[in-house]
Recover the amino acids of this structure.
C-alpha cells in the first residue's frame, strides 16, 4: 500500500486544513480515517506531529524482537479477544485492537506482530491476500497497512476454518444458507438474465467479444437456466438439442463475486433435471481443460483426450448418460 502523507485541503466550510492522505491504486488522493473521522489539523505542524508518531510506531514494530513460539502462545492466551458479531454467520473470527491495551502491552503487541511476520505463510481472506500465522489451534492475520503505519488490529480464528490448496492457505468461512430462485428462461425477457451474466462473467472478465460469446445457438430453440439472487441474475447455462436423444450444454457462467458458493453445481443439477423432463438421455459438453474435474464430480466422463479449441480456451469433449 502507499504511504501516508500530509496534504493541504479545504474543508466543507471552505477553511484550509492539513490532513493525512494516501494514494489509492489509481493514484487518487484519499483521506486517512481514524475513529470514523478524517485525520486533519488546522496547522501543518500539528499534522507533521501526528505523522511523526505514526512513523515512529511503525519503526518500533519493525525493530521489535519476535517472540519464540511459546512466548507468542502466552501473549495470545493472555488477552481477551473480541468476537466479531457482525460476521458471526459468514466469517466467524475474533480480533484484538492495539489501542485497547496498556502501554507496556502495546510493546508486546508489536513483538507479536513481528512474530507473525517472521513465521507467516501465504493466505487469502475472501480474495484478499494476507500473511497467516498458524499458532496452536488458531491462526492470525492482519489486513494490509500503509507502508509507514503499524498494525493496529489482529484477527484470529480457529484452524478448522482454514484449508490448504494450490500452495496457499484459504479462509473457508461459513456460507449463510441462502435460497436462489431458479428461472427456466424461454422468453426473451427471461433470456436477458442469462445474457447479463454472460456479458459480465465472460465478455467483461475474459474480454471475449460479444460476437464470439453470442452465436447462432442463442435463439428460440435454446433453453436457459438462470439463478436469481433477490431478482438479480447471478448464474446461467444453456442447452439445445443435437438429436432426438441428446443435447449440448454450455455457456455455464457464475458471476465472479458469487463463485465458491456451489452455484455451478446447482445450476448444472437444475439443467439436468429439466433435460430429463424433455426426455433426453445424454448431455454433451465441451469442457475447458481446467474445469474437467468439476464436470467429473457431476458424473461426466471424457469422450477422449483430444484437446480442441473453443475460442481462446482449450477444451475436452465430455458426456453424461442420464
Amino acid at each position: 500500500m502507499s504511504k501516508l502523507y500530509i496534504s493541504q485541503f479545504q474543508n466543507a466550510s471552505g477553511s484550509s486544513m492539513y490532513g493525512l492522505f494516501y494514494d489509492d491504486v489509481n493514484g487518487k488522493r484519499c483521506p486517512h480515517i481514524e475513529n470514523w473521522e478524517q485525520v486533519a489539523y488546522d496547522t501543518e505542524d500539528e499534522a507533521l506531529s501526528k505523522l511523526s508518531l505514526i512513523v515512529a510506531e511503525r519503526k518500533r514494530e519493525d525493530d521489535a524482537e519476535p517472540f519464540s513460539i511459546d512466548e507468542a502462545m502466552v501473549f495470545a492466551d493472555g488477552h481477551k479477544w473480541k468476537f466479531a458479531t457482525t460476521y458471526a454467520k459468514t466469517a466467524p473470527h475474533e480480533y484484538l485492537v492495539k489501542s485497547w491495551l496498556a502501554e507496556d502491552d502495546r510493546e508486546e503487541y508489536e513483538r507479536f506482530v513481528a512474530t507473525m511476520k517472521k513465521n507467516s505463510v501465504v493466505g487469502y481472506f475472501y480474495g484478499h491476500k494476507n500473511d497467516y500465522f498458524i499458532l496452536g489451534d488458531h491462526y492470525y492475520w492482519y489486513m494490509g497497512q500503509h507502508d509507514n503505519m503499524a498494525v493496529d488490529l489482529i484477527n484470529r480464528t480457529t484452524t478448522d476454518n482454514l484449508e490448504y490448496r494450490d500452495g496457499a492457505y484459504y479462509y473457508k468461512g461459513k456460507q449463510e444458507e441462502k435460497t436462489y430462485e431458479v428461472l427456466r428462461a424461454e422468453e426473451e425477457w427471461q433470456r436477458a438474465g442469462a445474457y447479463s451474466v454472460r456479458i459480465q462473467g465472460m465478455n467483461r472478465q475474459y474480454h471475449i467479444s460479444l460476437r464470439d460469446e453470442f452465436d447462432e445457438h442463442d435463439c428460440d430453440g435454446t433453453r436457459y437456466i438462470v439463478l436469481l439472487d433477490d431478482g438479480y441474475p447471478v448464474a446461467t447455462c444453456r442447452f439445445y438439442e443435437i438429436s432426438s436423444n441428446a443435447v449440448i450444454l454450455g455457456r455455464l457462467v457464475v458471476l465472479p463475486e458469487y463463485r465458491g458458493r456451489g452455484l455451478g453445481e446447482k445450476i448444472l443439477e437444475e439443467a439436468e433435471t429439466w433435460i430429463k423432463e424433455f426426455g433426453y438421455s445424454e448431455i454433451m459438453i465441451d469442457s475447458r481443460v481446467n474445469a474437467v474435474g468439476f464436470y467429473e464430480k457431476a458424473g461426466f466422463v471424457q469422450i477422449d483426450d483430444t484437446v480442441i479449441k473453443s475460442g481462446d480456451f482449450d477444451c475436452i469433449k465430455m458426456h453424461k448418460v442420464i
Remarks:
- The two ends are 52 Å apart (CA to CA).
- The helical segments are 44-63, 69-77, 103-118, 188-204, 210-213, 263-277, 292-297.
